[in-house]
Amino acid sequence: MPTTAEKDHVYKILDLVGSSEKSIEDAIQNAIARAAKTIREMKWFEVVQTRGHIENGAVRHYQVTLRVGFTLEE
């Protein structure tokens, strides 16, 4: 059973867009790593949208929109 502290979290939600030439996973990691430099207490993320850039019949770039939740400080 969750404790009172676990049940009463309040989250702020931030939308981020990560990109990578390697993969969708790398685009997610890039977005989270960059946000972690200035945002504390990130707890979860949700992939909202994925898209890519095609050049000469090949995937050249991945872009992922994330919704990230973080807890507010006291």
Description:
A hairpin with a 2-residue loop joins strand 2 and strand 3. This protein has one domain (10-71): Dodecin subunit-like. The model has no long low-confidence stretch (mean pLDDT 91). It has two helices and three strands; from the N terminus they run H-E-H-E-E. It has a three-stranded antiparallel β-sheet with strand order 1-3-2. The protein is an alpha+beta fold and 74 residues long.
How would you summarize the topology of this molecule?
Blueprint: H1 4-7, E1 11-20, H2 24-35, E2 42-55, E3 58-71
Antiparallel strand pairs: 1-3, 2-3
Summarize the structure.
The protein is of the alpha+beta class. Helices cover 22% and strands 51% of the residues. The longest helix is centred in the middle third of the chain and has 12 residues, at 24-35.
Distance between the termini: 24 Å
CATH class: Alpha Beta
Structural class: alpha+beta
Count of runs of 4 or more consecutive helical residues: 2
How much helix is in the residues? 10-25%
The pLDDT mean sits at 91
> Based on the structure, what is the oligomeric state of the protein chains?
single chain
Estimated radius of gyration: 15 Å
Total count of strands: 3
Binned strand content: over 45%
Major β-sheet annotation = 3 strands, antiparallel
- Output the CATH homologous superfamily: Flavin-binding protein dodecin
CATH fold name, please? Dodecin subunit-like
Total tally of structural domains: 1
Q: What would you call the shape?
A: elongated
Order of helices and strands: HEHEE
Strand order across the largest sheet: 1-3-2
pLDDT < 50 stretches: none
Any guess at the CATH architecture?
2-Layer Sandwich
